[in-house]
UniProtKB/TrEMBL annotation, chain A:
<feature type="repeat" description="WD">
    <location>
        <begin position="113"/>
        <end position="146"/>
    </location>
</feature>
<dbReference type="InterPro" id="IPR015943">
    <property type="entry name" value="WD40/YVTN_repeat-like_dom_sf"/>
</dbReference>
<dbReference type="InterPro" id="IPR001680">
    <property type="entry name" value="WD40_rpt"/>
</dbReference>
<dbReference type="GO" id="GO:0016226">
    <property type="term" value="P:iron-sulfur cluster assembly"/>
</dbReference>
<feature type="repeat" description="WD">
    <location>
        <begin position="312"/>
        <end position="350"/>
    </location>
</feature>
<feature type="repeat" description="WD">
    <location>
        <begin position="16"/>
        <end position="54"/>
    </location>
</feature>
<dbReference type="InterPro" id="IPR028608">
    <property type="entry name" value="CIAO1/Cia1"/>
</dbReference>
<comment type="function">
    <text>Essential component of the cytosolic iron-sulfur (Fe/S) protein assembly machinery. Required for the maturation of extramitochondrial Fe/S proteins.</text>
</comment>
<keyword id="KW-0677">Repeat</keyword>
From TrEMBL, chain B:
<comment type="similarity">
    <text>Belongs to the MIP18 family.</text>
</comment>
<dbReference type="InterPro" id="IPR034904">
    <property type="entry name" value="FSCA_dom_sf"/>
</dbReference>
<protein>
    <submittedName>
        <fullName>Protein AE7</fullName>
    </submittedName>
</protein>
<dbReference type="GO" id="GO:0007059">
    <property type="term" value="P:chromosome segregation"/>
</dbReference>
<feature type="domain" description="MIP18 family-like">
    <location>
        <begin position="39"/>
        <end position="109"/>
    </location>
</feature>
<dbReference type="Pfam" id="PF01883">
    <property type="entry name" value="FeS_assembly_P"/>
</dbReference>
<keyword id="KW-0159">Chromosome partition</keyword>
<dbReference type="InterPro" id="IPR002744">
    <property type="entry name" value="MIP18-like"/>
</dbReference>
<dbReference type="GO" id="GO:0051604">
    <property type="term" value="P:protein maturation"/>
</dbReference>
Amino acid sequence: MELLDGRFELKETAKLEGHTDRVWSLAWNPATGVGGIPLVFASCSGDKTVRIWEESPSSGSWNCKAVLEETHTRTVRSCAWSPNGKLLATASFDATTAIWENIGGDYECVSTLEGHENEIKSVAWNASGSLLATCSRDRTVWIWEVLPGNEYECVSVLQGHTQDVKMVQWHPTMDLLFSCSYDNTVKVWAGDDDNDDWHCVQTLDESNNGHSSTVWALSFNATGDKMVTCSDDLTLKIWETDETNLHSEAGYSPWRHTCTLSGYHDRTIFSVHWSRNGIIASGAADDAIRLFVENQEKGIDRSSFQLIFKKEKAHNMDVNSVQWSPGEKGLLASASDDGTIRIWELVPIS
Amino acid sequence: MVSGLINANPVVYQKKERRARNAPCDSDEYAVEPIDQLEIFDHIRDIKDPEHPYSLEELKVITEDAVEVDDGLSYVRVTFTPTVEHCSMATIIGLCLRVKLMRSLPSRYKVDIRVAPGSHATEAAVNKQLNDKERVAAALENPNLLDMVDECLAPSYS
């Protein structure tokens, strides 16, 4: 354990067991952790199941409330809650995406989205919950429109990546879709006014200071003018767009590279998540979790970031996913090849 | 007649003599013995080539020197040499090596598998694929591929 700053550390508050294979991913329900609603998240695994976990408000302990099984026939690679927290989408290597609804405490599969040729790697909802995106080893990104009655219609199949697409993520305020790939690039996709014709508006690759190997994940800051990406090239990269243009009608404002964080992780960085209060968490195949914040000194042209905490041996094996919780508490959850999920609290060092 | 094999006539080498791993004489029998190069080589030397009835050792696809290990850091790297430069079996061989080590080594181990530099036409692509754990996980859920891997691994368990 090393502390460069000496102000915070991650304290493990729970270790959740139940999955019988590696845990690939987890997602906090965004409608929980506020107004007295207990925190809830979903986790998905190579054991083909999804588990729903809830914090007990009285004891702070965690209980597995549901196991979603016998729907996906292969690894469940990724999961995502709709913005209102009512629906859970799960993406599987079985080439389907399932939509689950919490009906009186039971999770029912209300829709199955088919179309990808092979393994689906990621699923994401846009900010309003009207669109869903999925991506696959078949190199395509699909955009689905959410219709009444649990109907989902594919509105666009986006081709452009030359290899598997590892992750899709929507911009937090605009209907801009970001995808990152085994082809080492991040692509940005925008729709026309009716959101039914989509095209690639920017590719972030090595020629504009992008990554030199597989890009595994990306995440946005709270205001949506900065983005962080992580890669098999062992670096994290920070990208920026013009904030002033963000909400104007002037059209697309391109993203530019501002900073590369290298020399921290020793092996592939699988996951990165930017908290609403500005802390970037990264999880990697070196079993460690690292936290970074932006330096506050003014007068520097380019932004710079510093490591504030490093948790070696956060897990016994690769860390596949790190996610900050919604709500006031600011918990961090991590999922690993060791089959466990760990919950961390960011605490000041006394 | 044109042979369907990628390399129809591979050179077969004699197997190296099996050495017992030399234990230090003052060893405490309860002490944890570090994992060494020979132990790792013993796990993988008898893996069968996907298209010949010979072991990877007999075809010199792997040698003891191709195994680098640091037990303190829980790290292994295996460098293998496909018999021909365009060997389309390279990814299967690499997958076999990875699966055998995954099943044999303690879970704390980090394993890198690569083809020997200059030994394969699409070296970078093969290495990238073999070290992408998502692709490996997906491949191992493919029953045909898993059968092929298990058949190659069978002699290595005896």
